Amino acid sequence: MLWVGVRAMAVKLDGAPDFSDIGELGDVYDIGFGLGIHEPPTSMALKKHLLRRLNYQLCPHEDSTLAEMLVRPGPIRAITSARFGKWEGVSEDAVEKLPRICIKTMQDRVVKPEQQDVMIKKWPPLDVYQLDCDRSPFFSAPFLLSGLLVKAFSTL
């Protein structure tokens, strides 16, 4: 999976947010067309008024306010067109054996737990941990997240 990046349509669809209850793509995202309107989007960011509802619903208000001020558009074109070549002297088997962990955020409204399960099944990590938090555990559950990271690191 690492060799091909996220170019496989199934991988894109598994992790694609479903905001059909909110509206069309333009209702949810501020979309940037850095290469012109006739080219695919180059950047996307959730609209400011949706950030708390979708990303920070369990965070303290002061943290979500700070996050809203700091959030910047993501390089969607770079992410969706990423390609990873093979490295000289490194086998695909060696890459697949790299220890990976997954932290499921059980109240994630962007990549829902069911979607996370599908992605986990497609590329199984060494361990799967769960946090009962929103998409932003570094704000909504920082102590639980840091403890989990220490625990995960100690098992590698």
Automatic annotation (TrEMBL):
InterPro entries: AB_hydrolase_fold, MES/HNL. GO terms for molecular function: methyl indole-3-acetate esterase activity; methyl jasmonate esterase activity; methyl salicylate esterase activity. GO terms for biological process: jasmonic acid metabolic process; salicylic acid metabolic process. Gene3D superfamilies: alpha/beta hydrolase (3.40.50.1820). This is OLC1v1026659C1. It comes from Oldenlandia corymbosa var. corymbosa.
